[in-house]
TrEMBL record:
Domain ABC transmembrane type-1: 98-299
NCBIfam families in the record: nickel_nikB, Opp2B
PROSITE patterns reported in the protein's UniProt record: ABC_TM1
UniProt keyword terms in alphabetical order: Cell membrane, Ion transport, Membrane, Nickel, Nickel transport, Transmembrane, Transmembrane helix, Transport
InterPro entries in the record: BPD_transp_1_N, MetI-like, MetI-like_sf, Nickel_NikB, Opp2B
Species in which this protein is naturally found: Planomicrobium soli
Quaternary state and interactors: The complex is composed of two ATP-binding proteins (NikD and NikE), two transmembrane proteins (NikB and NikC) and a solute-binding protein (NikA).
Protein name per Swiss-Prot or TrEMBL: Nickel import system permease protein NikB
Membrane protein topology class: Multi-pass membrane protein
């Protein structure tokens, strides 16, 4: 098992390097000149002398391979340069906004798990019953409604009409309710259907029949065996959506004026702030990779058959 974990961790390194290479290539192929973008952000007229000076300062006059190695070195040191707009280190500004995004993502994931796990499990146990029909309706609603529209609807009813929650900003737990619900509705729809299908599939397995034959309590079979294995596909979806939430809460952060990383990225795009854009792309790729790695290791703990298959595969 230790060898399996080490193999998965080392496999992350070339993926990260490829993500950096892809980001590097996209920036170099962009029609936006970093030197020109920097001078435009500083409201300085771009003369040829100033452009040449800034290109030399940014290392853009060096061979591409040297630029790529320098980029990898800087990223390893968390040095993404200075923002064109504020002239402050990008990583410091990103680090100041990441806690807000982490808080929003964590609350959304927690809310979706607390609702989708019992709902998906019960809808499979009581198939075609009232709970199952309710979960289907909720899933259709969550999968079809756009997040920005749902956010505005929640603001209209619960903030403007009922005055129960604040409209925008970050502060107390009340500020967290509406954006968390907006993000979690789509996740609840996905996780509920995934878990329901997985539980129904596990109920057809022979080990469930054997456990019932041995006289094991139905509740123990359902919780200790069926649910533990059936939740694995949901864990996979959780890993993918966690990385997406940490980097893709852009729309919700804009709707609720949430001071997170996604909103900062939108501002960087409008201002052609290339160092911030580079930081976002690299950080997004790394978060996706790390989140999927963590979920894979959790699946290994919950289902040891994964490591056994790895050892027996040619």
């Amino acid at each position: 098992m230790v060898a399996y974990i080490a193999k998965r961790i080392f496999a992350v390194i070339p993926i990260v390097l490829f993500a950096i290479l892809l980001m590097f290539a996209l920036v170099r192929m962009s029609p936006v000149d970093p030197a020109e973008a920097y001078l435009a952000a500083a409201n300085i007229h771009p003369t040829e002398e100033l452009l040449a000076e800034k290109r030399h300062e940014f290392g853009l006059d060096q061979p591409l391979f040297v630029q790529y190695l320098q980029t990898v070195k800087n990223i390893a040191l968390l040095d993404f340069g200075n923002s064109y707009m504020t002239n402050s280190p990008v990583w410091e500004e990103v680090a100041a906004r990441l806690p807000a995004t982490f808080q929003l993502a964590a609350s959304s994931i927690l809310l979706s798990i607390l609702i989708s796990v019992p709902l998906g499990f019960l809808s499979a146990i009581y198939k075609n019953g009232p709970i199952d029909h309710f979960s289907k309706g909720l899933s259709y609603f969550g999968a079809s409604i756009p997040q920005f529209w749902l956010g505005y609807l929640l603001i209209f009813f619960f903030a403007v009409k009922l005055d129960l929650f604040p409209v925008e900003g970050r502060g107390s737990w009340q500020h967290l309710v509406l954006p968390s619900v907006t993000l979690s509705v789509a996740l609840i729809a996905i996780y509920t259907r995934l878990l329901r299908a997985s539980v129904l599939e596990e109920l057809q397995e022979f080990y469930v029949l054997y456990a019932r034959t041995r006289g094991i309590k139905e509740s123990a079979i359902m919780v200790k065996h069926v649910l533990k294995i059936a939740i694995s596909p949901m864990m996979t979806g959780l890993g993918m959506n966690l990385g997406k939430l940490l980097t893709g809460t852009i729309i919700v952060e804009q709707v609720f004026s949430w001071p997170g990383f996604g909103r900062y990225f939108i501002e960087a795009i409008f201002n052609r702030d290339i160092p911030v854009i580079q930081c976002y792309v690299v950080l997004a790729a790394c978060l996706f990779i790390v989140c999927n790695l963590i979920v894979e290791l959790l699946q290994l703990y919950m289902d040891p058959r994964i490591s056994w298959k790895e050892r027996t595969e040619p």
